[in-house]
């Protein structure tokens, strides 16, 4: 049984902890968070120990694995600390605030002989998996272009304030949401990013982070894609249109997938796929146990950070 430590008990930690608890080969040993009550609430259902300092947790607990769920600007120091203890790492995205930091993390994990997987979740989401299968089958012909639109009230009061601190977050909606969009594009096209151009706005009073962005991306396989993000006062949407020579897919990630071959759109059943976080965790554990390469390793995640850096430059 592999012992797991959770570092950071933010909102997404509940999904990770459920995946740990439901896997037959892992158990939660400890949770660390600066806010003791948050750590306690996360740990108690699983009988795990509570810490307010992750370095103390790493020193005192014989952990095999760590899940890092911290503000982006804290990722590098935490990854280096875990690697120094020989602990394999599942790190929330984006990997870091800069490509240079990503490279240092990769080198540290390689030197320590530990696996690093970054939580780019798109390949595990049921609707995305079904879309990928359809595209790979050739049923709709060749993929001609992709249009990705995501809108959300990025500056809502309940968002943790560190997201609006450029130094800590690394950026705004592009660093946070374009990481998802680029991951989705790479997965659905079975390719990587060849080029990216675009622009963003930073018009929210009281913060320097970007609130909207538009990008034109080309993959190594030759697919062109547009990515549009808006985080001002909007109605939330997350829609990806995949236009092929013989039809199209309308993908609402986490909600629905529809297909057309020239007529009306019809729904695609995605109920056969497991929960995304459970699938991600199972993939990570298979990598740890089998020593195989991970899909979303440090190099993959670093390329996404590098693309976003290009947009910001």
TrEMBL record:
Residues 129-249 form the GFO/IDH/MocA-like oxidoreductase domain. Residues 2-120 form the Gfo/Idh/MocA-like oxidoreductase N-terminal domain. GO terms for molecular function: nucleotide binding. InterPro entries: Gfo/Idh/MocA-like_OxRdtase_N, Gfo/Idh/MocA_Oxidoreductases, GFO_IDH_MocA-like_dom, NAD(P)-bd_dom_sf. This is Gfo/Idh/MocA family oxidoreductase. It comes from Candidatus Gemmiger avicola.
């Amino acid at each position: 049984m592999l012992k797991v430590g959770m570092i950071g008990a933010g909102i997404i930690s509940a999904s990770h902890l459920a995946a740990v608890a439901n896997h037959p080969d892992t158990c939660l040993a400890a949770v660390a968070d600066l806010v003791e009550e948050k750590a306690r609430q996360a740990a108690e259902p699983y009988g795990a120990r509570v810490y307010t300092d992750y370095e103390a947790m790493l020193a005192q607990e014989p952990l095999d694995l760590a899940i890092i769920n911290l503000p982006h600007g804290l990722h590098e120091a935490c990854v280096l600390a875990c690697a120094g203890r020989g602990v394999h790492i599942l790190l929330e995205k984006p990997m870091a605030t800069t490509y240079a930091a990503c490279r240092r993390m990769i080198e540290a994990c390689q030197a320590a002989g530990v696996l690093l997987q970054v939580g780019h979740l798109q390949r595990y989401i049921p609707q995305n998996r079904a879309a990928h299968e359809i595209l790979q089958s050739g049923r709709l012909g060749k993929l001609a272009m992709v249009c990705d639109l995501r809108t959300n009230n990025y500056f809502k009061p309940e968002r943790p304030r560190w997201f609006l601190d450029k130094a800590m977050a690394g950026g705004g909606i592009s660093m946070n949401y374009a990481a998802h969009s680029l991951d989705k594009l790479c997965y659905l096209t079975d390719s990587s990013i060849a080029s990216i151009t675009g622009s963003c706005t930073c018009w929210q009073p009281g913060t320097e982070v970007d609130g909207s962005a538009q990008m034109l991306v080309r993959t190594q396989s030759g697919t062109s894609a547009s990515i549009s993000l808006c985080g001002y006062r909007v109605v939330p949407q997350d829609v990806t249109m995949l236009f092929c020579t013989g039809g199209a897919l309308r993908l609402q990630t986490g909600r629905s997938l529809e297909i057309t071959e020239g007529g009306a759109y019809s729904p695609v059943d995605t109920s056969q796929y497991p929960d995304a976080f459970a699938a991600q965790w199972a993939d990570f554990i298979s990598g740890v146990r089998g020593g195989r390469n991970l899909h979303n390793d440090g190099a993959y995640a670093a390329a996404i950070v590098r693309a976003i850096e290009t947009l910001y430059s």
